[in-house]
C-alpha cells in the first residue's frame, strides 16, 4: 500500500528549519470559537513569517475533542481555509498546515482522516493516550495513522502527560516511510539523544527533520549541528 506523501514544497519548508507555533485557541465570553480573533491570530502568524502552523496540538487544546465541546473540527476547518487562502499568493513557499492527532487508534485515525480531507499537510502524532501500550502496539498505531497522512512525531515530556519512548521506538518509528519530522520535547537530554540516535542509525537524517520543543534547553538544541 502506497503511503500519502508530503509535497516537495512542503518538505522543502520543513527541511529548511522554520518556526512552528502551536496556535492558541480564541474563545468568546461564552467559550465558543471566536472566528474573528482566531482568523486574526492565524493571519498574524503568517505575516510574521512562520513556516508552519500547528492546530489542536497544545495541552490546553486537548479538551476541544470532547464531543460535549466539539471545537476540534470547526477549528481545523477554519484554520485550513485561512491558511489555504494566504498560500495562494505563495505557491513555492507555502505555510505548512499541521494538525494535532491524539487518542487511541480509532480516534487518531478519525482525526487524521478529517485533517487529510481538509488539506492538512502533516499530522503531529501524540501518543499520550497510549501510556501503557507496548512498543509493538505503539508502532502499529503509528502505522495506522501514517496510511492516512504524513507524520510528525511528538515526544511530549512525561510531566505533562507524555510517556518515555526509548531509542528502540524511535528507530522503528522513523522507518515509517512518510515520517517527515519529529518535535522533540521530553525536557531531558538523554531522552532527546534517544531520538537523535534513532534517526541517525536508521539512516534517515536527511529525510526526517528534528524540531526542538525543549524549552529548558532550547538554545543548545538550536546550536547542535
Characterization of this structure:
- The chain has 225 residues and is of the alpha/beta class.
- The protein has a single domain (8-223), classed as Aldolase class I (TIM Barrel, Alpha-Beta Barrel).
- It is built from 8 helices and 6 strands, in the order ααβαβαβαβαβαβα.
- It has helices spanning 8-16, 35-48, 72-87, 105-117, 135-146, 167-173, 189-201, 218-223; strands at residues 52-55, 96-101, 122-125, 151-156, 179-185, 209-212.
- It has a 6-stranded parallel beta sheet.
- Strand 1 (52-55), helix 3 and strand 2 (96-101) form a beta-alpha-beta unit.
- Helix 2 crosses helix 3 (72-87) and helix 5 (135-146) packs parallel to helix 6.
- The protein starts with 7 loop residues before the first helix and ends with a helix.
- The model has no long low-confidence stretch (mean pLDDT 95).
Spatial order of strands in the largest sheet: 1-2-3-4-5-6
In the CATH classification, which architecture applies?
Alpha-Beta Barrel
Supply Rg: 17 Å
User: Class, according to the CATH hierarchy?
Assistant: Alpha Beta
